[in-house]
C-alpha cells in the first residue's frame, strides 16, 4: 500500500506539471512591445517587410504591384494569414491572390481559406485568408512540409486589366498561430531554422546581422520537447498503478492463520 501511495503522489505531481503544457496550446500573440509594425511592404523576397505574429501591418501600393511580408513560424504552430484590401471604386473588377512561401521559398499549400478572390466592379474591399499546415520540427528532404523558420507572404493581382493598372490600393495583413502542441510532434529537428543567412552569420561572425531579424518570443524550439512527453509519462504511471492493483487482486490473502509455519 505504501508503494501505491507513493506512485499516486507521483502521478498527481505529473498531472499538475501537464497543466501548463495543455494551457500552452491556446493561441497567443508572440509580438514583443518594442517591435515596430511595418507601414509598407517589400517588392521582393529580399526586401519583404518583417512582421511579428499577432500584429497588423499596413501598406499602400498600386494595382499590379507585388507586396511582400515575412514572419517567423516555429514548430507546432499552425499559422493563419489574413489580409484586407481597400480597392478604388473605379476599378473594373480585380482578382487578388495570397501566396505563402517557406524559408526555402517553396510555395506552401493552404489547408483552407479564400486564397484567391475576385472583386466585382465597384467593390470597395476584399478579404483573403490562408491557413497553413502545422509547422513540423523535422521532415524528409523530399517532402514539402512546413518547417521552422522565416515565411514569406506575397500579395498581388492575377490577370489584371490594363485599365486597372496603377490604381491605388491599400492592404492590411495579420498573422496569428494556433499552438498544436504534442499532437503534431515528430522525432528529430533541424540543425538551424530556415532563416536566410543564419548559417553564414554563425559560421563567420556572430556580430553580423541575419537577413531576417525576428524570431519567436521564446526563441526557436529545439525540437526534442513537446507535451507528448508529459502524456507518455502519465501513461507509464497509470500502467504501473494498474500492474500493482492487479497484483494485489491475484496474490490472495497469504497463509491462513490456522496453518502452522512448518506445514
Short account of what is shown:
This protein has 263 residues and is of the alpha+beta class. Helices cover 20% and strands 27% of the residues. Strands 1, 3, 5, 6, 8 and 10 form a 6-stranded mixed beta sheet that branches. A 5-stranded antiparallel beta sheet has the order 2-11-4-9-7, with no helix packed on it.
Description:
With 263 residues, the chain is α+β, with helices and mostly antiparallel strands. Helix content is 20%, strand content 27%. It contains 3 helices and 11 strands; from the N terminus they run H-E-E-E-E-E-E-E-E-E-E-E-H-H. The strands form 2 sheets. Strands 1, 3, 5, 6, 8 and 10 form a 6-stranded mixed beta sheet that branches. A 5-stranded antiparallel beta sheet has the order 2-11-4-9-7, with no helix packed on it. About 9% of the residues have low confidence.
- How would you state the average pLDDT, rounded? 78
User: What structural class do the secondary elements suggest?
Assistant: alpha+beta
Largest sheet: 6 strands, mixed
Q: Say how many strands there are.
A: 11
The number of helical elements comes to: 3
Q: Mind telling me the C-alpha Rg? A: 27 Å
Low-confidence stretches: 9-14, 16-33
For the record, give the distance between the C-alpha atoms at the N and C termini, rounded to a whole number: 29 Å
What pattern of helices and strands is seen along the backbone? HEEEEEEEEEEEHH
Amino acid at each position: 500500500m505504501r508503494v501505491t501511495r507513493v506512485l499516486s503522489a507521483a502521478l498527481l505531481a505529473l498531472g499538475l506539471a501537464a497543466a501548463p503544457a495543455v494551457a500552452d496550446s491556446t493561441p497567443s500573440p508572440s509580438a514583443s512591445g518594442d517591435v515596430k509594425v511595418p507601414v509598407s511592404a517589400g517588392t521582393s523576397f529580399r526586401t519583404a517587410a518583417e512582421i511579428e505574429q499577432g500584429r497588423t501591418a499596413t501598406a499602400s501600393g498600386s494595382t499590379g504591384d507585388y507586396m511582400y511580408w515575412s514572419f517567423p513560424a516555429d514548430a507546432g504552430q499552425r499559422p493563419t494569414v489574413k489580409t484586407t484590401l481597400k480597392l478604388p471604386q473605379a476599378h473594373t473588377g480585380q482578382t487578388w491572390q495570397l501566396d505563402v512561401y517557406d524559408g526555402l521559398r517553396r510555395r506552401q499549400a493552404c489547408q483552407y481559406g479564400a486564397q484567391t478572390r475576385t472583386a466585382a466592379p465597384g467593390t470597395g474591399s476584399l478579404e483573403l485568408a490562408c491557413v497553413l499546415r502545422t509547422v513540423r520540427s523535422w521532415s524528409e528532404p523530399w517532402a514539402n512540409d512546413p518547417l521552422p523558420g522565416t515565411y514569406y507572404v506575397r500579395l498581388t493581382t492575377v490577370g489584371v486589366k490594363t485599365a486597372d493598372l496603377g490604381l491605388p490600393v491599400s492592404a492590411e495583413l495579420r498573422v496569428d498561430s494556433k499552438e498544436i502542441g504534442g499532437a503534431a510532434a515528430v522525432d528529430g529537428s533541424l540543425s538551424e531554422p530556415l532563416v536566410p543567412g543564419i548559417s553564414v552569420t554563425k559560421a563567420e561572425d556572430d556580430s553580423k546581422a541575419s537577413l531576417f531579424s525576428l524570431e519567436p518570443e521564446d526563441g526557436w524550439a529545439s525540437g526534442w520537447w513537446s507535451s507528448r512527453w508529459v502524456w507518455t509519462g502519465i501513461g507509464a504511471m497509470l500502467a504501473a498503478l494498474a500492474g500493482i492493483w492487479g497484483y494485489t487482486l491475484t496474490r490472495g490473502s497469504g497463509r491462513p492463520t490456522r496453518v502452522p509455519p512448518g506445514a
